[in-house]
Amino acid sequence: MKSSGDSGNKYILIYIITLVLMIPILIMAHMAGRNTNADKNPYELQSLDSGWFARDAAGNSGSVTLPLNSPKFYGRTLTLCRKLSAADCQGSRYLMFLAYHSSVVICIDQTPLYTFGTSGSVFSLAPSAYHFFRLDDSYIGKELTITLSSASSKFQGTAEKIYIGDRASELAALIRQNIDAIFSYTLLLAVAIVFLIIWIYMSFSSKKYQNNSLLYLALLSLFMFIGGIIDTKVPQFFFHNIEALCILSYESIIFTEMFVIAYFLCSKNAYIVKMTRKIAFIPVVNFILSNLLFLLRIEDLEDSLLITHISILILAVCEVSFTIKSKLVERSRTGKKGLLHLSPEAVGFLFMALTVCIDIVRYYSGTKGDYAAASRLGIIVFIMLLGIQSLQGHMDILAVELQSQVYKQLALHDSLTNLSNRTAYEKNLNDLNNSSTGHLKAIVAMFDLNDLKKINDEQGHEAGDLYIKNCAYFINGFFRDFSTLFRIGGDEFALICSLDDKKKFYTAYEEMVRRYNEADKSQINFAYGYAEFDPVCDHNLYDTAKRADQVMYICKTRMKKNIIPR
User: Which residues pair with residue 529 across a beta bridge?
Assistant: First the structure.
C-alpha cells in the first residue's frame, strides 16, 4: 500500500514535467504574432535586392540583383558595391546577410570596417554565418563594398540576399526563417530538463538508485540543443564571436557520441555493455582526429564532419547489431520462435541512422539550406524512445523500493495501535547496545495492562482492542514528543528514552501517574515502572529493561492489593 505522500510527490513531478513541456508551446504562440499592428515596428526588415554593382578579379562586372548566382562570376572573389542613400541609413539600421563558407570584408569608401574569416581566422574554410553591419548617418552618399571570398569553389562568386532593418526586425526574421529548427531544438532542451529533473528526483528519493542513463540522455539532448541552436545562426545575433560559436557547434556534435556510448554502458544487458566497451574508443578517436586535422590546418573542421558522420554510422551499426545479437542469444536460450522483436533503442538508432544518412547525402551534394532537417526528427525520436525505455526501468526500480519500504514498515509496525512493534523494539535496543555510548544514556520504562483477559472474556475482543488502544494512546500522549513507545506483546508496552531528555521524562512520568490516578479504570488500567541504565548492575540495556520490568511487576502487585503506587 502506497502512502499519500508518495502519491503527492509523483503528482508534483508530473506537474514539473508538464510545466517544462509548456515552454516550446509558448514560444510557438509568441512567434505566431498578434492580431494588431499597434506595436508595428516602423523599420520593418526590407530586402536590399536591387541597386548593386558586382565585379570580380577577372574584370567581370555589371549591375546585379540579389541573390546572385551567375556563371560569369563563378570561381572568383566577388565584390558587391552600392552608393548609400539617406533611406538606407535612416535611424539605427543594419545590414544583415548570410554568407556560405566565405570570408567577408565590408568597406566604406575603401576603408575596411568589418572583417570575418580573413588571415586571422582559425578556419581554413570560413564557416557559414550571418553578418550584421550598422549603417551610420555619416555613411550617406558614400560607397559600400562587400567582398566575399571562399576557399571552396562551389561557393565562390555567389551572394545571398541582403536585408536592411533594425535589430528587432532582423531578430524576428531570423527566428521566422528557422522556426521549425528552433522549435525542435527547444523541444530537445525541454527533454533535457525533464530527464535531468527526473534523474535528480530518482537519485535523492531512492538510496539504491545508481543508474545514470537518464543523466546521459539529458546531456545528449542538451549538447544536441547547443549544436543545433547554434547551427540556426540565431545565437550569432547576440554573440559576435562567430568562429567560437561554430567551433562549439561542431564540438557539441562530436561529444554527443560519447553520451550515447555512456547510455549503452548503463544497459542491464551484460552482452551489450561488454560489446559497447569495445567500441567506446571511437568517439575519443573522432574527437582527437577531427581537432588535430583542424588545428594543423590539414582539413577544415566543418569538412572533418565527414569523420564524425562516419563515426556516428559505425556506432549505429554496432549498437543495433549488438542488440540483435543479444536478442538472438536470448531466443536460442529460451527456445522462442517467430519474429525478432527489437528493443526501442535499436528501433530508435535505426531510424536516427537513416535520417542522418539522408542529411549526409544532402550536405555533400552541395545543397544549400538546412542540413539537419531530417536528422532532427531522427534524433528526437531516438532520444524519446530511449527516454521512455529508461523511465520504465526507473519507475520499476522505484516501485520495487517503495514496496520494500512498505513491507519494512509493516514488519516494524503494530497495526492496532499504530506504534512500533516488538521487532522494532529489539532492533532499537540492539542498535543502542552496539553503539559506543548509546546504552550508557538511556531510560527504559515498562507498562502492562490490567484485566485485559477479563475484558476479552466478558465483553469480547472488540472491546479488548478498544481498551488496548485507549491505554496506548493515553501513555504515548505524555512521551511521544521525545521518546518512542513500543507494543511488545498483547498487553505489554515498552518505552526507550535518552538520558539527554531525563528531565522531560520525569516531568511527563509524574504527570502520567497523576492523570492515571484520576482516570476511569474501566477504560485505562495498567501497571508501570522504569529504570535508568546503571553501569554497576547493567551489562547492557537488556539488563536495564529487566529491572524496569521488575519495578513494573511490583507496581502490578501493589495494584492488586489496592495500594496506589506513586
Answer: 446
Radius of gyration of the chain (CA): 39
| Structural domain count of the chain | 3
**pTM exceeds 0.90:** no
Residue 42 lies in a domain: no
Grid cell at residue 535: 553501569
487 bridge partner residues: 493
Q: Look at residue 457 and give its three-state secondary structure.
A: helix
Q: Crossing angle, helix 461-479 and helix 452-459, to 10 degrees?
A: 140
Report which of 373, 333, 386, 343 is spatially closest to residue 191, judged by C-alpha positions: 386
Q: Within 10 A of 377 (CB to CB), how many other CB atoms are there?
A: 15
Both 310 and 165 in one domain: the answer is no
Q: Which residues are bridge partners to 444 per DSSP?
A: 496, 531
Using CA atoms, how far residue 49 sits from 79, 132, 466, in Å, is 15, 16, 92
* Residue at which a domain ends, from 151, 175, 199: 175
User: Each residue of 295-349: pLDDT tens digit?
Assistant: 777 776 666 667 777 787 788 788 778 877 877 777 777 666 655 566 676 677 7
Q: How many C-beta neighbours within 10 Å does residue 3 have?
A: 12
Using alpha carbons, select from 181, 282, 192, 279 the residue that is nearest to residue 232: 181
d(CA 263, CA 283): 13
Residues 123, 255: one domain? no
Compute CA distances 528 → 203, 267, 467, 471, 550, whole Å. Answer: 46, 58, 16, 12, 10
**Whether residues 238 and 306 fall in one domain:** yes
Element (H, E) at 533: none
The residue from 345, 362, 397 where one domain ends is: 397
Element (H, E) at 458: helix 452-459
The parent domain of residue 369 ranges over 7-26+180-397
In a domain, 407, yes or no: no
CA angle 304, 97, 236 (to 5 degrees): 60
HEC profile for 498-529? EHHHHHHHHHHHHHHHHHHHHCCCCCCCEEEE
230 part of a folded domain: yes
3-state secondary structure of 2: coil
**Domain presence at residue 406:** no
Same-domain status, 335 and 366: yes
Measure the CA–CA gap between 438 and 252, rounded to whole angstroms: 55
Dmax of the chain from CA atoms?
A: 128
pLDDT in tens, 253-295: 888 888 888 888 887 778 888 888 888 888 888 888 888 887 7
Cβ atoms of 79 and 56 within 8 Å: the answer is yes
Same domain for 220 and 337, yes or no, is yes
